[in-house]
Each structure stands twice: as structure tokens, then as C-alpha cells.
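Help needed: design a sequence for this.
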């Protein structure tokens, strides 16, 4: 195995974090929809927390992408 193929394998393994982030984002929004469906008056209380959870979860995907690109192009 040469160096280039090892870089591609490493970048692919580093990008696995994007899968978990996708599951997390889906979980955040499904929880928000379920909560608002049960109690519509609670929307103003829980919507901010959903956006914060979305941003933090999406940041994990961006970090995984950056690490993957650093492995590929270094």
C-alpha cells in the first residue's frame, strides 16, 4: 500500500463523523416536532434550544470534514 492510498483511507475514516452528525441533526429536529406537536404553546420555549443543538451537532460534521480535508491535502 502506498502513501496516497493510505491518505484516502484515512480521510474516509475521518469523514465517518459526518454520519453521526446527520443522525444527531435528525434527532434534534424530530424531538422538536414531537414536542411542538404535543404542546404547541411550548414552541417559543424549546425552539431556541433546538437551534443551539442543531448548531453544535452540525459543528461536529464541519470538524470531521476539515480533518478529512487536512488529511487529503497535506
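Sure. Designed sequence:
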Amino acid at each position: 500500500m502506498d502513501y496516497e492510498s493510505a491518505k484516502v483511507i484515512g480521510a474516509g475514516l475521518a469523514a465517518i463523523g459526518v454520519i453521526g452528525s446527520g443522525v444527531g441533526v435528525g434527532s434534534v429536529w424530530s424531538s422538536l416536532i414531537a414536542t411542538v406537536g404535543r404542546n404547541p404553546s411550548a414552541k417559543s420555549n424549546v425552539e431556541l434550544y433546538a437551534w443551539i443543538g442543531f448548531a453544535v451537532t452540525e459543528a461536529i460534521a464541519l470538524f470531521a470534514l476539515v480533518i478529512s480535508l487536512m488529511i487529503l491535502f497535506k
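The CA atoms of residues 38 and 66 lie 38 Å apart.
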